């Protein structure tokens, strides 16, 4: 935003640095004017647009100046509040259960160990969970209800409430209010608590900013904080290192990510959530298998990944029960769709994790024959999509097809293939391709009856077997499926992906009595699929 060689910009940088120092040093009554000056320096045209590069670059300069100043101050002892910050990844807490000694000591110190404070803190936790779910409408409603009750005399609830409010402001693209909130919060905690806590608030500010996935500015800020706090091994170190670990591979190569992941697991695990620990162990399992070729180490990491995956699901249940205990039935119904989305995401992640786990095991079959036998028992289901696989066709369906033939029930076979699927993997990577496969599987499950059989036949090919469906009815269903997929937008992180499918359908014939008849029907559908591909793709053809 500012150029080092432009005299005007050099002057602006000096003015900015002076304002940041004054803001951190000033008493509370002088801060509104200093905050207003910083907002004015940012520029009225740009200040409201969180997505703009100029907005992010300006406030990154402000953060940079604050980081430099705060990190240079060494707190003699960690405050009660700073130590209590490690509880945030564990929310929601049962605040009436005194096993949370950090929280109990904090509240005893400020004389807030009472039922009224418990109820208010539960509302703050409720807002936090709603923001994490992405239900900003409900979060805003509850936030407005308790706004007059929130004050800085209970510092942990005050910090969490304002951090959640910042996310709500960011969601509504209120850039000026978003920046002002942080500019008031940081000096407040610097003066009332410690430089460590103020630095933690800056880390939360960096988290809440809408950075692009490949932001070098975000990387620079995180790296600067890490270089200043990495010897402390506290909640600030943990939060910053995990955010660095989460950067794109282009900004943080896998070997460095592995070093960070092992440090977080071995030294800083108490400061992390179960979801973060699951992701760290899963990454380490993949890295140990693929890069270190250390089978035993890989298995250990995958075991812990599965353990934490179960903990993630249990935590989701705990969150649901907590929210249900506070909201009315009508209010809880409004939150339910966000829970359903989260549960679906977790289910899809489990499929992807299990698929990767099995692939890693197969790399060293001789050492894990017993484990593979356990996997084999479950192998009638495709671990990525949750659909049945080819083995299910070979072992379970022949008898059903014979019975259908005996009763004169028509059976149709349709072969579905994603057009140019390799381009998806090449352009966005295999995780994006996996997301498309999972999304298509969800569509297939929605579109067909429970009496039909949908099979992941291999790669990007799916086989659909329709019972009691005449040829003309099958063709109508397949055309509807083709159109729905063409109109659908598959999403992976912040990427929107569009694909089409080609479909081949076999003609009705004399019926199915054995494996040879099944193979003949599948071959006919495959031939029709080949015709659809050759004639331009994104169409339905019959053999």
Mind explaining what this structure looks like?
α23 links the parallel β7 (501-505) and β8 (540-542). The protein has 543 residues and is an alpha/beta fold. The model is unreliable at 1-8 (pLDDT under 50). The strands form 2 sheets. Strands 1-3-4-2-7-8 form a 6-stranded mixed β-sheet. A two-stranded antiparallel ribbon has the order 5-6. It has helices at residues 7-25, 31-42, 53-71, 80-84, 101-109, 115-133, 136-146, 155-171, 175-192, 195-208, 216-229, 235-245, 254-267, 274-290, 295-326, 329-362, 369-377, 390-396, 398-406, 421-428, 430-447, 471-487, 515-534, and strands spanning 388-389, 411-418, 453-458, 461-467, 490-492, 495-497, 501-505, 540-542. The longest helix has 34 residues, at 329-362.
The level of helicity is 55-70%
Tally of separate helices: 23
Mean pLDDT: 87
Mind summarizing the main beta sheet?
Answer: 6 strands, mixed
Radius of gyration: 28 Å
User: How far is the first residue's CA from the last residue's CA?
Assistant: 62 Å
**Beta-strand content bin:** 5-15%
List the helices and strands and how they pair.
Layout: H1 7-25, H2 31-42, H3 53-71, H4 80-84, H5 101-109, H6 115-133, H7 136-146, H8 155-171, H9 175-192, H10 195-208, H11 216-229, H12 235-245, H13 254-267, H14 274-290, H15 295-326, H16 329-362, H17 369-377, E1 388-389, H18 390-396, H19 398-406, E2 411-418, H20 421-428, H21 430-447, E3 453-458, E4 461-467, H22 471-487, E5 490-492, E6 495-497, E7 501-505, H23 515-534, E8 540-542
């Amino acid at each position: 935003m500012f150029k080092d060689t432009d005299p005007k910009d050099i002057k602006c940088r000096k003015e900015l640095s002076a304002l940041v120092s004054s803001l951190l040093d000033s008493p509370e009554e002088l801060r509104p004017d200093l905050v207003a000056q910083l907002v004015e320096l940012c520029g009225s045209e740009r200040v409201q647009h969180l997505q703009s590069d100029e907005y992010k670059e300006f406030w990154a300069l402000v953060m940079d100046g604050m980081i430099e100043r705060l990190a240079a101050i060494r707190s003699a002892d960690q405050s009660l509040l700073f130590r209590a910050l490690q509880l945030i990844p564990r929310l929601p807490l049962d605040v009436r259960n005194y096993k949370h000694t950090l929280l109990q000591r904090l509240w005893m110190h400020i004389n807030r160990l009472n039922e009224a404070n418990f109820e208010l803190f539960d509302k703050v936790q409720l807002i936090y969970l709603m923001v994490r779910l992405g239900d900003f409408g409900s979060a805003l409603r509850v936030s407005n209800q308790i706004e007059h009750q929130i004050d800085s005399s209970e510092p942990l609830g005050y910090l969490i409430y304002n951090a959640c409010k910042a996310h709500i402001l960011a969601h509504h693209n209120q850039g000026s209010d978003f920046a002002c909130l942080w500019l008031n919060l940081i000096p407040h905690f610097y003066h009332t608590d410690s430089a460590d806590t103020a630095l933690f608030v800056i880390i939360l500010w960096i988290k809440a900013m809408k950075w692009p996935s490949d932001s070098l500015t975000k990387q620079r800020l995180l790296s600067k904080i890490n270089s200043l706090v990495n010897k402390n091994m506290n909640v600030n170190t943990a939060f910053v290192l995990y955010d660095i670990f989460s950067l794109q591979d282009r900004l943080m190569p896998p070997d460095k990510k592995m070093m960070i992941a092992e440090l977080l697991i071995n030294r800083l695990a108490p400061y992390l959530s179960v979801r973060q620990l699951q992701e760290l162990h899963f990454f380490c399992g993949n890295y140990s298998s693929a890069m270190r070729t250390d089978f035993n180490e890989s298995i250990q990491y995958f075991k812990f990944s599965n353990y934490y995956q179960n903990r993630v699901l249990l935590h989701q249940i705990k969150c649901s029960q907590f929210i249900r205990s506070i909201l009315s039935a009508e209010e809880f119904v409004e939150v339910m769709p966000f829970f359903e989305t989260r549960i679906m995401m977790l289910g899809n992640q489990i499929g992807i994790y299990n698929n990767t786990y099995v692939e890693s095991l197969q790399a060293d079959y001789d050492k894990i024959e017993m484990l593979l036998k356990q996997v084999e028992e479950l192998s009638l289901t495709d671990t990525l999509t949750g659909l049945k696989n080819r083995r299910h066709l070979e072992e379970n369906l022949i008898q059903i097809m014979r019975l259908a033939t005996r009763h004169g029930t028509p059976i149709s076979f349709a072969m579905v293939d994603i057009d140019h699927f390799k381009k998806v993997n090449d352009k966005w990577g295999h995780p994006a391709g996996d997301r498309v496969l999972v999304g298509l599987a969800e569509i297939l499950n929605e579109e067909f009856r429970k009496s039909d059989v949908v099979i992941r036949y291999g790669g990007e090919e799916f086989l659909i077997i329709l019972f009691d469906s005449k040829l003309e009815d099958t063709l109508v269903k397949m055309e509807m499926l083709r159109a729905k997929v063409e109109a659908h937008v598959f999403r992976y992180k912040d990427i929107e992906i569009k694909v089409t499918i080609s479909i081949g359908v076999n003609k009705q014939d004399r019926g199915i009595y054995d494996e040879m008849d099944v193979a003949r029907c599948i071959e006919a559908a495959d031939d029709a699929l080949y015709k659809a591909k050759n004639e331009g793709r994104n169409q339905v053809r019959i053999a």
